[in-house]
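Protocol step 4 of 6: structure prediction from sequence.
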Amino acid sequence: MAVIVYALCTVASLLCAWLLFQSWLRSRYRLLLWSGLCFSGLTLNNLIVVLDKIVFPDTDLRTLRLAVALLALLPLLVALINEER
């Protein structure tokens, strides 16, 4: 059951990133670009979760997962701060 949940989370993140990028291409609204980049990073994070929990259960990839999650959220955080100005 865990494999299905992890796979669905990964697919959902990928779908969100794709939809955000498609919307950005039509409107050129910068926040959509930054959100798409964020969700792309979150998709990578979900893939690492699958690797950590399913493929390599004996290896601890927690530090890598947290680093990727932080890097994924940074573009959106910077964009939200800059859009506010």
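Step 5 (inspection) to follow. The mean pLDDT is 95.
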